[in-house]
Amino acid sequence: MADSTPTPGIHHVTCVAGDPQRNLEFWVETLGLRLVKRSINQDDPSTYHFFFADAEGTPGTSMTFFPWEDLPQGKVGSGQVARTAFRVPEGSLDYWEERFEEYGVDYDERVDRFGEQVLPFRDPDGLPVELVATEIGDDDPTVPWTEFVPESAAIRGFHSITLWLEDPEPTQELLETMGLERVGTEQAEGDTPGDERTRFAAAGPVGTYVDVLPTVQGGRNGHGTVHHVAFQTPTDADQDAMRKAVRSRGLNPTQQIDRHWFRSVYFREHAGVLFELATNGPGYDSDEPLDDLGGRLVLPGQFGDHREEIEANLPDVTIPRSERAEADD
């Protein structure tokens, strides 16, 4: 690989949703993630930006959404992040299947992949998501959020993403440039016979894997699709070195952009998937106390001067609270 620090793994994944209230209810109550930041799309302040993560917003745990209600339904296809998978503790998939039955979640039968059990499902916008049962060590950096889901089943950050690509080889070489190691190949379950899933592993314990699957199936952006995936470049120096490494592959990354809770560099990889390089700091608790994350609409930087106008253009939403949490207030 190029002379840069290998990425520890996925930082966050950002997706497109429809109705913001429905999005909140599913990801907070049904899946049990914490709303760690309620803000706006900094490129389109008329739209919310929700961040769902573990109890502390640990890098590698945040699934974020732009609820653009006016967009059409999307379709997952080539040139996209086709699947986003989360880690859950071993032995918890029975709990999740029962919970999905209770909440009416659209899910499929479990599959075995690289020696692990995977439970595929879809969120209310049709976004393909997976839970992967895996061992969570005592030294794991994630902190479970247990308002709605017990610690024994709580989501513990990302496991992997799956890229669907028409021509995988240039992207696979890019992943190796970013420090991910090719660790295995197996027949892709449920797909055309002969298709192979190739797995790449990053250096860290969370958001470790990127799977690459060849497909020519066409897709389109919209509700239920991934907007972009961000990889961790923990420090500014790491990010600058990775930016140079990416440029060495003939790609055109942006200059650093301050996103308030992290600093970002964006580029489209060879197949058109939007990649981001994100620093680990300052973090989601840089402008709110840890105990109050997600409790208010945060308007970073210059947007704070236009709060009244911005709030007037956003739909009202209610953050789900458990009966136990309400009793403690």
Automatic annotation (TrEMBL):
It holds the Pfam family Glyoxalase. InterPro entries: Extradiol_RC_dioxygenase, Glyas_Bleomycin-R_OHBP_Dase, Glyas_Fos-R_dOase_dom, VOC_core. It comes from the Archaea. Residues 309-329 are annotated as: Disordered. CDD domains: PcpA_N_like. Gene3D superfamilies: 2,3-Dihydroxybiphenyl 1,2-Dioxygenase, domain 1. Residues 9-134, 157-280 form the VOC domain. This is Glyoxalase family protein. It comes from Halolamina pelagica.
